[in-house]
Amino acid sequence: MLTATAIAVDGLGFAAWLFLSSVGLTLIYGVMKILNIAHGGFYALGAYSSAWAIGVYTTTGSTVALTFLLIPLAALIAGAVAGLIVERGVLKFMYGRDEVLMVLVTYAIFLILEDVTKLIWGTQSYVAWQPAFYFGTVEIFDIPYTVYKFITIGTALVVGVSLLLVLNRTRVGKLLLVVIEDREISGALGINVNLFFTVTFVSGAILGALGGAITAPEISVSPGIGAEIVVLSFAVIVIGGMGSIGGAMIGALIVGFARAASVHLYPPAELFSIYLVMAAVLAVKPYGLFALAESRKI
Amino acid sequence: MTKSRLGATMGSLLKTSTSLMAAATLSVMALSDTASAQDQSVKVGFVTFLSGGAAGPFGVPARNAAELMIQSINAGTVPGPYNTPGIGGAMIEPIFVDENSKQKNADYLKLVEKDGVEMVIGYISSGSCKAIAPEAEKAQKLTILFDCGTSQIFEEIVTDPKYTFRTGGHATMDNVAAARYLKQQGVNLDSIAGINQNYAWGQDSWRDFSETVAQLNSDASVATEQFPKIYAGQYGSEISVLLTSKPDVVHSSFWGSDMEAFIIQGSARGIFERSNVVLVTGETAMQRLGPQLPDGTVIGARGPHGALAPDSELNDWFRKAYFDRFGTFPTYPSYKMAQALLGVKTAADKAGSAEQDAVIGALQGLEWEGPSGTVSMALANGHQAIQDTAYGTYKYDKDAGKPVLVDVVRFNAECVNPPAGVTSIEWIQGGFEGAKCE
Predict the structure, then answer these.
(1) Facing A143 at nearest CB: one of B50, B226, B240
(2) Per-residue CA distances from A293 to A168, A200, A298 (Å)
(3) Which of B147, B64, B178, B359 lies closest to A122 in space, CA to CA?
(4) Cβ-based contacts of A114 with chain B (< 8 Å)
């Protein structure tokens, strides 16, 4: 019972982090058909902005509670600025190119963003632990868990449900679904596809930055964190089906529980478990669990 | 003035003049030597992490120490016996390369073949060292590994080294000392657990620690052994396992951002209160985390470096010079870089040349003084260093507002390192035969 509970809570916590870190990637792919490797750069920018802002703020000696506002604010500013520059400055000139070429383009942008973080924040790592400790812990079967972890889980839930509601219940969301379905027909119907691209890319960048920003208080923010997250995020969205928000949720849960179970039950399989699950899913569903059916154009 | 007094005065003047002339001649000779030395230079490649997760806590402090030491060695301003300019009469001309590369071997060969370096000093990651040591032997280029820890380098990878040296102790020293420290402090060792990175350094460290504990306490059992991926950053599940398995001791050789993340996540969840946690490389986090690193944590520095360094003129000079230049005190990667450079200087000065073959001949089996004490190239046919080491218990001094180490215990080099010709694991499992611990 103890182990089962621990696997459930740990799996949920890891899944929440994975979802927040990967949902921007799947959103951009779904709308724009761009596998955005630069996502790792947005994640890192969010983490650095958040850690830096918390660090500067806490030196003033003010209440730590306000740092919970700084985290989304840092993500919003970092993601919006970087996303807008990348989309308006580079990607808008590349739309319609081959998907593989776009992978290379976004990889180049990722490398540039890595250097940008070093130029701004240097090579030193940043720690901003105050929010992670602020609400203390709760014990479940004698195992303490930080309240911050449950805040992360709650945030992931809110972000996921909000995105699904916006996509399925609002006019803008429905128009976006039309763009996802067929961008040429959408354009012919008078939808401003380019505007949707810009808004989607900036939203994806902000979500990527939010993943980093909310993680920052639990880690040591250092150069290279963006590269790690791209690989994991890719595994998550491939399992769920590239471009599917619900798929990213399920993918994150599968990976989260698989990893937690292996750590608790058979630690040597920890590293392998994520990719084993991915291989098993792809063997049965080659396009992922919730991949959108694609019509073939003749 | 009488004749005799005049004679005495003249004699005195003559003596003074002679002395002055002799002094002037010596000065001119010294200046000439200096000018001659400054005319010669030796290209040395330096490879450390200049980007990536290991740059901040390891690569950059090592690079900083290299810059400081190169400037000081070239100027002859390091305290004696290192107060002559250059190495073997030649000025060091550094070329810095980033270790955070997917093509480490190609970068190394570029240094050797294109840049024409006389020697390479570098490599923090055990993975890098495992790749570069055979390459160095193949390229026949003097290569000094200054930091990486895996004992596999000379025990399995390059068993008959000619060109490869390591001027710092390996993982066995760090982990045998950690276990001995816990035993000496009266910590219960019945149940131990490990959380170490899943590559050579983490695996070797855990093997040496757990095997040493098994020797020191035959009742010891392993509660859990966790090997997360390097740079994983998220250790929620692993910490839950450590909490549920309730070990007496948690051992971790995590380093850099991984170690800091583990400290933050683990201390928030009380793992440091429920178990005695030993951090093999903990010294690098002391200044950075301050009060966030829980009191009572057992701290190592991969040798008697940093906060564990003994008092000496050389150490005082190094700490002051480093602080004056970089605004922070040097941690162990800086010490190990300084140690490597002083070893090279000692060897080159002894050989009277900075040329590769001369330095190799002199460095083999060499003994020299570093900022953290005596270093002896005693293992692997004179290619692997041993030195004394130390562990301490962390305490944050709230009044002074700074971290300190208490209950510091020093261990002789021969107490925590295997003798020459015996592999680490054979030595540990054989009950530390030949260990000199008094």
Answers:
(1) B240
(2) 17, 21, 16
(3) B64
(4) 51
* Helices (H), ranges, B279-331: 283-289, 313-326
User: Best of B125, B199, B237 to disrupt the A interface by mutation (most A CBs within 10 Å)?
Assistant: B237
> How does pLDDT run along chain B (438 residues), one tens digit per residue?
334 444 444 444 444 444 444 444 444 444 444 444 456 899 999 999 988 778 878 899 999 999 999 999 999 999 989 999 999 999 999 999 999 888 999 999 999 999 999 999 999 999 999 999 999 999 999 999 999 999 999 999 999 999 999 999 999 999 999 999 999 999 999 999 999 999 989 999 999 999 999 999 999 999 999 999 988 888 999 999 999 999 999 999 999 889 999 999 999 999 999 999 999 999 988 888 888 899 999 999 999 999 899 999 999 999 999 999 999 899 999 999 999 999 999 999 999 999 999 999 999 999 999 999 999 999 999 999 999 999 999 999 999 989 999 999 999 999 999 999 899 999 999 999 989 997
Specify the 3-state DSSP secondary structure of B130: helix
State the Cα–Cα distance between residues B210 and B318, nearest whole angstrom: 35
Q: Which residues of B touch A267 (CB under 8 A)?
A: 224-227, 241
Determine the distance in angstroms separating the CA of B180 from the nearest CA of chain A, rounded to an integer: 27
Q: Please count the residue pairs, one from chain A and one from chain B, whose beta carbons lie less than 8 angstroms apart.
A: 135
Q: For A267, which of B225, B234, B269 is closest by C-beta distance?
A: B225
The torsion angle over the Cα atoms of residues A23, A26, A30 and A34, rounded to 10 degrees, is 130
Cβ atoms of B153 and B130 within 8 Å: the answer is yes
CA distance B238 to chain A (A): 6
CA B409 to chain centre: 18
Chain B residues touching A40 at Cβ < 8 A: none
- Residue among B310, B259, B251 nearest B282 (CA): B259
CB-CB under 8 Å, B240 with A6: yes
- Residue reference for tokens 């290619």: B383
Most distant CA atoms of chain B, gap in Å: 101
Which chain A residue's Cα is nearest to B100? A224
ipTM: 0.89
Residue written as token pair 């295997």: B418
Class of residue A81 by CB neighbours under 10 A (exposed 0-12, middle 13-18, buried 19+)? middle
Tokens for B181, please give them. Answer: 């420290």
The token duo for A39 is: 């996502």
Query: What are the domain boundaries of chain A?
Result: 16-223
The span from the first CA to the last CA of chain B, in angstroms, equals: 72
**In chain B, what residues touch A118 (CB-CB under 8 Å)?**
51
DSSP A30-60: HHH----TTHHHHHHHHHHHHHHHHHHHHTT
Backbone angles phi, psi at B106, to 5 degrees: -65, -40
d(CA B340, CA B342) in angstroms, rounded, equals: 6
> Is residue A297 a contact partner of residue A253, using CB atoms and an 8 Å limit?
no
Cβ neighbours, 10 Å, residue A194 = 13
User: What span, in angstroms and rounded, lies between the C-alpha atoms of A228 and A248?
Assistant: 18
